[in-house]
Records
---
Amino acid sequence: MEQNSKIRNFCIIAHIDHGKSTLADRFLEIAGTGTKGKVSQQMLDSMDLEKERGITIKAKAVRLIYSAGGASYILNLIDTPGHVDFSYEVAKSLKGCEGAILLVDAAQGVEAQTVANFHLALEGDLKIIPVLNKIDLPSANVERCYRELFDIFGFKKEEILTVSAKNGTGVKQLLDKVIEEVPPPSGDSNKPTKAVLFDSAYDLYRGVILFVRIFDGKIEIGDRILLMHQRKEYRVEEIGIFCPEPVKKESLACGQVGYICCNIKNPNEIDVGDTVTLSSNPAKSPFEGYQEMSPMVFSGIFPSSSQDYVSLRAAIEKLNLSDSSFSYEPDSLGGLGYGFRCGFLGLLHMDIIQERLEREYNLDLIVTSPNVKYKIKRKGEEQIEEIESAHQFPDQQEVEQAYEPYVSATIMVPVDFIDPVCDLAKSKRGNFIKMDYLGKDRLNIIFEIPLSEIVIDFYDKIKSVTRGYGSFDYEFSGYKETDIVQLDILFNQKKVDAFSLLVHKDKAESKGRAVAERLKELIPRQMYEVKVQAAIGSKIIASTKVRAMKKNVTAKCYGGDVSRKRKLWEKQKKGKKKMKQLGSVSVPREAFLEVLKM
């Protein structure tokens, strides 16, 4: 059995696009992990979606064997995401580690998610190793980054390592530093088994795969394990580690990270954050469970064909196992039929879930416009209701008070861009809270902003107005009273629920006009005229038309009296009127997606 003193459990944390996955690639190469010739860019980013977008979506664990000072060490590395929407993956990963590499882009400097991840690691009492990456770039400003790391976190210059993950400069020295500074895992192999279930995945043949970190005792094939929160027992059928491909083992010992399979077929039987022990000799008390992430953005997911509803339900249940941070419940909506009402941590998270459902489960989906969770109080009632979608919103006359969620938004920008950033925040109904200087040329500005104003495009606009130098992070701050109205979209006086939105009263008119004009461009011409309108209650606030397709019904008339043509025109006119009354407007899927992006 491997000794704990030769084990190091650590993760890489950083802002998005600061080089975490590339650094993990260099670690894999130096340790000689994986078959020669198979080491590729972003090796731990196994999804095509991750490689295409250049982002990490799921935290990945891998075991490295590394020799230093004449001894062989086992390094359990977890590569984490950097986008604010996936911060829950970072929080889960930190549970299984004793140390963290805090990676900072030498060209970009400290950014918002760098600060957020630092505090997560600090709360977990991890040993933090500060590292500057991309020092080979011409735009790298190492001295400025030294100052920022000292001013913001208190790291001294001699504590900070400099590396280039791209060409491998300083990476070996960083691994030596990990062995030197990250403490080995504590725990006693003779105590009752106690492990944390920090993640899970679903396999079609093996069922639910549990990713665990052993703190005390050990787990062997044939053991009967107990999930302490769920109070369920299972027999261990398979045990293994990640190298980075799964490698089967006979057991997992104290301090190790790996996976176990118990032939669990129902994904709902698993809680990420649960404590795993042996049913024959259970631990005295479980670990505290993870704090559940509250969904911030809500949207409906519907199959393009009603026949795919059962497939969609099965796909969402399986995907929810590998990403337990999104919630779902059955829903039905007008012409879209049956689907699911889902809650996500942000817009990128929603986009990723949709794309994974389409790619991994071969589904064709329609996703409704995203919105946040509002709270309302009806007239004459004391109880507060939660509203997650526009079609749950009551008539405006029934609403006494409405409340919307606010977030504390932390925006880090160079001093030169303070004016456009403040203008952008104010245009989003933001209230200035405070501003701190981070060194001489960077600012940390905090605004209180309605969540509904930032879920769509706020992050992109921050990047745009700061020429890519700004960064953004947020946390929920509470509910405040607001003036929310329901904006409906009508096609030929018929309301389409899928397009209904909840918006602030001050922005309803401009939003209604924008949506109506965009739909005018997206809806194909029909055999009859289509009137597109935006309305609040019975009041029409925007209106436009999609012209009818023209068919020359008099083409067959060669000469003769004009009355022959008039008869044909009148007949065509009556037919179009009847079609307009009875026909349904064909709205392409692209129209739903385009309005979603707005």
---
Amino acid sequence: MAIVILLVGVVLLIIGYVTYGSWLAKEWGIDPSRPTPAHELADGVDYVPARKAVLLGHHFASIAGAGPITGPILASVFGWVPVFIWVVLGSLFFGGVHDFGSLLASIRHRGQSIGAVIQSSVGQTEKKLFDIFSWLTLILVVAAFANIIVSTFVSNGAVATTSLLFIILAVAFGLINQRTNLPLWLTTIFGVSILFLCIWLGILFPISASAGVWWAVILVYIYIASVAPVWILLQPRDYLNSFLLYAMMLGAIIGVFIYRPSVQLPAITGFKTSGGFLFPMLFVTVACGAISGFHSLVSSGTTSKQLNTERDAKLIGYGSMLIEGALAVVALITAAFLTQAEFSEFASPTLVFANGVVTFMTAFGLPYDIGQTFVALAVSAFALTSLDTATRIGRFVFQEFFSSIDEKTGQIKRTPISNMYVATAITVAFGGALGLTGYAKVWPIFGSANQLLAALALLAVAVWLKKQGKNNKMIILPMIFMFTVTILALLLLIYNNAITLSTTGNPILMVIASALLVLAIILASRASKRLRE
């Protein structure tokens, strides 16, 4: 049965890319002859044209993170059928549309964020509100992912060694591609070969250090990664890391076909489970496996500034989400082949995923201990890529908030606080402080906040398309659905914490959820008014 789930999921995603993705590109007027911001505003730091394969690697690795792994596994309490249906349909008609639309809207706004799209389509006040919300969400992402990486490095020194070697390899790879005329296929063979050598060296020479040391290393690294030219670290590291992620996915898929795991998880467990009500909690829990607001920040943050030609927008924006959907299907299978007793033995969804993938790969001869290190490294690579990308985007959003555009010249006017180095330092400081002082207290709000971000991004793209005279009907339904899901999820979160306030309720979550609820209603009402106009 697991083979059938995998086959049906992958085939539907491929068909959707060829048909629906092409239709979206036609309806939205993708124009390969139109210069992209990467060329028009090229500065050698943020605006740098990237080859299609390189940018695909960066974008996919950045948006994936741990979300498509943890989300479907946590949502499996509702049964495999609803999770599978939402992952496939959500990726095709919600997440893919959201990511593709966000990328295109940003390209047409000089590579600026979704906040800038909201400003031009809705208003300045709404743009400021969105920027604040986006930046705070990114701070939470930085705190959480830094914690994940530090914990991984402390518990697995091989992953720490390999990750550090990856950074050195990425710089060398970037310099070679920037300073020489060697073909990409040749440097890729060299880079990927060295990458797997780094894995072997990591296993031989694991680094052992305390959490405090790794926190210092990670915070210094993400600061440097945020201000360094994208071609010397971000582009090459994410591109090379993507091969690690592709290898893990391919190994898992081949392993499923050879191992032929049975499905122990019930098709449907019920409308109300330990995970809450199927509606709306399924759609908040799966999150990145079907649609994620964080993706709109990546699309309109780093990716839009590196897109070489609009011809690549479909593959990068729409295709990456479908690859992530395929990863979410694999993650679901790693949970579905376990019995309930076996599932409860694992402390986290990432351990469930690692166990499943490694078990499947042992079917073609990979030793379990080596496979375990390999998968842990791949998951860590996901997290590290999302971490430095989130930091860079946090810097972009912070700079945009404290900057203005000269209406006559179109030039961006900076203030001292919006300086690149100051904005990065503030973003890293707040993310690190939250990570060190207890981000877990507010982490339960992330799922709702992330899906609210997706609803707001869809809203911005819908208004922009309408303003341009383009078809936005494919945006309206996902937008309404995501607003409904988010508002209901926030109401449930407020209610559940209110009735248990004297015992286990969290007043901080209640306040944040209430603020998000008000924000959602204000922005939705203002934007819907513009749509009617």
---
Amino acid sequence: MNQENRTCQNCKKDFIIELDDFEFYEKVKVPAPTFCPECRLQRRLSFRNERMLYHRECDLCGKKAITIYHPEGKNVVYCHSCWWSDKWNALSYGREYDFEKPFFEQYRKLSNTVPREGLINANSINCEYTHLAADNKDCYLLFESSNNERCNHCYWMQLSKDCLDCAFVNSSELCYETFVAWNCYKVFFSKECRDCTDSYFLQDCVGLTNCYGCVNLRSKSYCVFNKQYTKEEYSKILEEKKEQIKQGKAADLLKDFKDFALKQINKYAYIQKSVRSTGDRLLNTKNCIYCFDGYDAENCKYGYHVWRDAKEVMDGSTVGRGAELVYESINSGMKNYNVKFGIQDWNGNHDLTYSEACSGSSNLFGCISLHAKEYCILNKQYTKEEYEALVPKIIEQMDAVPYTDKKGRVYKYGEFFPAEISQFGYNETPAFDHFPMDKKQVQEQGFAWKEQEEKNVNIGGDIVGCGHKGKCQDHCTIGFKLIQAEKDFYEKMGLPVPALCPNCRHYYEARMPQ
């Protein structure tokens, strides 16, 4: 089959389905999508709340817990201990498949009744306020990260220690406000760096030590704005800059650096040690096409966060740690194999279709919150023979009786979940980061909107006021608590207390022109 031009049923723009796409679809036994790659990504991201946290009572034990689900939500939420306990059985929510009704309508009803885990936080120590995280220790407000120690207010961190306000940082230590870095130590206000030490305001640098305001340099020391200095000259300049940072003038220094960086040669993309790969911010990838923010991945396409031995992935958002043969899924990892249309499935799953929050399971279709189960449909147990006979009939029925959303978009077998059945408001999800829209635009496109709540915050002591004072649309907390680890970090590194709360800092950095 040759490539085909198609029109996205969502944005109405043309997109191309190439020969290798058709080969992958045949491999995983799905039809070609009717949404373009960008609309598919936006839809997937709208199903995950990464960083909006709430206090809510556990619907089983009644204790207050930290959760990503708003307390006024209509779903059922358990605390971590209850969700993983044997006090309940997810199969008890199972239901017969109704061939008269669309699949997604039935899934939506199941979704509102099966208990969800309030936070995803596996194998971690002293990490109460972390989400979509695993194998961390002594971390606070850390999201989408694993194998870190003492990392606070960070996003998508891997194998790092003692970092603050960083994102997409790997195998690094004592970094601050650094975006995309590998093997860095004491690097501040920088982006897209590798193997750098004791440096400030870097962009696309490798192997630098004791440098300030540099762009595109390799294996240099004692440079300021790409100009070579002696060690003594550099030390004098740096002390002046550090004093300005202490005085809260980092924003002025950042502006000076950006003005300088814009005059330099800027690469079309940050892709290193990669073969036949396109996209941006890639390291150690092979045959990764139109992929972003990934490393150690192979044979992936339309990927966002494909990493740590991800292989054979199409339309995957945060897929890694040995995951293989994954299609149209978000947050799928830890040795998953052959997962299609999955949400938050971890830990050794295989052969899952339209599943959510399942672990150690196989041969599931339309299931939620199952552990170590197999041959289930809508959380109802079947024999192997019954399951294998029923699934093809359901797929056929999904085409004959499709789900149509409020905007008239049609969902047959092969489409990810309709956005209107997401448990979250659009502005609670990373879709808001990457596809920002105002409330009117969000609702016009069929997504939900979460209104910001009034907050009564007493500023003083460890509670610091946010400069936005709740007047932005970025879930401003108005005030934010300084934990002791932050105080120690700022004092040790000679840094001032930030002027914005963690949420505002996150959105400000996410929307900065790169």
---
Amino acid sequence: MKKPCLFHYTFHMDFTQPIEIADHIYWVGMYLPNDPFQCHPYFIDNGNDSILIDPGSMLEYDAVVRKIEHISTIKNIRYIILHHQDPDLAASVPAMEKRIGREDLQVITHSRMVPLVKHYLITSSYYEIDKHDHTLAYGKKSLQFIPTPYCHSPGAFVTYDPHTKTLFSGDIFGGIEESWEFYAEDDYFEKAKQFHAEYMPSRDIFNYALKKIEALDLERIAPQHGSIIQKPQISSLIEKMKALECGLYIEKEYRHELLYTIEALRQKDQALESSLKALKEKEEFLFQKAKMADMGEMIGNIAHQWRQPLAINNTLLSILKEKSQMDMLNKEELMEKISEMENNLQYMSKTIDDFMRFYHPAKKKRIFNISEVISDALGIMRPILQKSGISLRFTPSDNTYIKGYMNEYIQVVISILTNAKDILIQRNIPNPAVTMSLTSRQGKVTLTISDNAGGIEEKHIQRIFDPYFTTKHKSMGTGLGLYLSKMIIEKNMGGILSVENRPEGAAFHITMEQYHEPHTH
């Protein structure tokens, strides 16, 4: 049979005969003069595995059967596709079943529609698309079923034939128009928009279906109603359909309610954005305040480390000055005292370098060994703890590599150690001690810092990481140390900082993802 050309005029076509719209795909409907609601069944001729799509009502039954018999035979139909459950599409199925007379005949539809179409007294088995991966293999060919829920029924779908690039679209792209044309022309949107405005539930739902459809490689669209749309019209038609107000959107009351809801959401969004900006400013303020507190702590620690070498140097200078005045200073003694003072100055310089190393923020993450950097950092903290009579035990461990900001990690360790020191002193604990241990398990490295200060009160342990929360006297801290430590470990480095009470005292755990030792070249 000769195929119609792209712009074949409707009045040149013989609608009493089947019309081939693609390779082995036929329109087998019935033209109803002056009826704006034309219905279009389609037939895929594939021998004993042929397919009838949306067979229609009993109004078209005789014409549909006659046209199929003209192409093939009605008994070759193996599948009947129902894109939805309405009678204009499905009412003739029981009569078709009897005429076909095959025990292996299957009705293809969505499981949501089976409870409805069964009321037509259909006797064939159902091929539910959502239970068959939305595909059908028939012979050497296949069809794809694409769900378009609520367009216009809950289980609605469209059928795509990748062989001919034809989309059988059910109600979508249908039209209600008395001046009907078999092939859509450029003004088809004007003829289709009323149908879609009234039958599609909302623009959001309709656009969800359209986005799926426009992703397909299409040569033509064959809807159940209206006109067949060919490739030159498809893209522009979809764009116009996307902007169409339909369903609830054409109700004034809903539009007003929707606009009110949108405005209310916009105002809430603005309020939330303002709140987030205030929180960000507050967080920045907390960091700045914590930096100042850290700087004060750092200066205090440097002063503590410098006090002894400064006192020694002052003593040496006094001795040199006195002996010089008494003309009792010889060259050997002068050089010895100068060398001792130089050693003290070098120690003081190293102290500054150590503090600068661990307090200077890192710019990028890198892999480092926790054992090594803690051993170095304890050069800062051990003298401070020893002065307070606190013993510190730490056993380094191999293969404890993590990725993060090394300096910030050490700041957290020093903050926790300082917190333990203050509590031990505040509670006047006999034989005060701090223990540090490393464990590796299931790809994680955990550093545990524990003390024997008796633990955290149960009413406080849930708030220990809150900003400004502290059980210390106001002269001993701001309450920001543990809060910022948690932010550094969890927000900046993707780890976990937690605390628990043990029989002897509190135990803080810093858990990070474990990394392999970096290769050096």
